[in-house]
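Take a careful look at the protein record below. Let me know whether the structure tokens fit the sequence:
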Amino acid sequence: MKKGKFAYPWIVKRDIDGFFGLAIDNLIQFLLIAALCPVLAGIPSEFVFSRILPGAALSILIGNLFYSWQARKLAAREKRDDVTALPYGINTVSLFAYLIFIMGPVYRETGSYLLAWKVGMLACFFSGVIEFGGAFCVDILRRITPRAALLSTLAGIAITFISMDFAFRTFEKPVIALLPLAIILIQYFARVKFPFGLPGGLLALIAGTILAWSFGIMEKGAVSAAASQIGFNPPRFYGGNLWEIFRSPYLFKYFSIIIPMGLFNVLGSLQNLESAEAAGDRYETMPSLAVNGIGSLLASFFGSCFPTTIYIGHPGWKGLGARTGYSTLNGIFFVIIALFGCVKVINTVVPMEAGIAIVLWIGIIISAQAFQAVPRSHAPAVVVGLFPAFAAWGANILKLGYQGAGTTLAREAERGVPIIGFLGILALDKGFIFSSMILAAISVFLIEKEFLKASLWSAAAAIMAFFGLIHTFEFLDNETVSVLGWNAGGKYAFGYFCFMVVFLLFHLWGKRGGIQEGAGH
């Protein structure tokens, strides 16, 4: 290093490689939003392109600029020329969770896509509040919640609503989707670098797109129509809509989705900070997490329903040679394509099947991490935490099946559906993110013979069940809606109360020397 004033370059050659990789990740999220919002929440495509994506792009820009600036400050402070900015973008798991478990049910219940959009913004807002607040109390969250409980819940969503759904889509259109999948698996399983350093995600998109156009699956007219509508769609402030829905009952109704997902974002971002530190770049926790939350808050104020987060993969970008320019380029790129309507054109040129291999891989990684990042003895607890997510996925399949058959859940329940555990499936579905965390946490503490902590988690479950935050439901045509209120889930509360008493008795027995607590293996 030369003596004198330290100057960190704004961009280096390898930033271009890093930009392509991060941009493809974020582009897949944009394409998913464009494809799934109309299907799951009834939101018209034009509404998505003109209101939701500009707000999402604004939040991505602000976050990327901050993390790029933060990296430059770190480089100047430590006089290093190898500092890499934290990757940042839309949270994939929250995207699916909000569309499937919040916005979709609101739309099916009310028939109003505007209401679904507003409730989605509300969920995004409170995710930002939790992320911002978590920056100041993250250590408490880490102490009281076992890692297996958090990762198991994420793994359940990843296996079912991400990996399985997209695996089905892959084999539904194998002509387009299997070649991109092969490319992604080569890059991430075999860890092979492609010629000229080309990102595997970019190659997968190109390969799938060429196949789709070669086999005449895409429509030329759609591209022309989208290109003719290119125009300037600036982000608009929708705080009034947010305040309007804030006074509705929807916030309390979807607490069981919003709170856990916010906590996941906080702890997931913290883990990514730890990963960056292990790679050599130590960033301050509080400002990094706070800006993460601010990004989600900003997104909600300007029409987006989808929280942002610090991405996994900092060591990968650092190993690639990316520094700070890749982050800045990523933010600028998404502002340009979102504000000028280019996403609409990309959406008509690139088939969804060309990019779903990347999302499928994300689901695989999240699922695998639940077993790899916890003590080996906690693996059974991870499995226990998967049950509620599988029940939620099964309930969704039942709803779709009955809808296709021209009947409803309510009608079939009256007839006495010949499915073993039918009502149990629906009970585990309601508030499944909370119950997944709780059951996995209880299992961890039992494995460790920490019976008092298992008892306290059981007491929390009893309280939540009593007021209807988990397990309670009633039929509304082809949907089930939570029943909230005093003694709404008394029978489930009694069951968890039994859990609490049994574990407490074992704790007391241990204190009398009958069992050695804290001696799990």
Remarks:
- The radius of gyration is 24 Å.
- The CA atoms of residues 158 and 362 lie 8 Å apart.
- The mean pLDDT is 86.
- The chain has 22 helices and four strands.
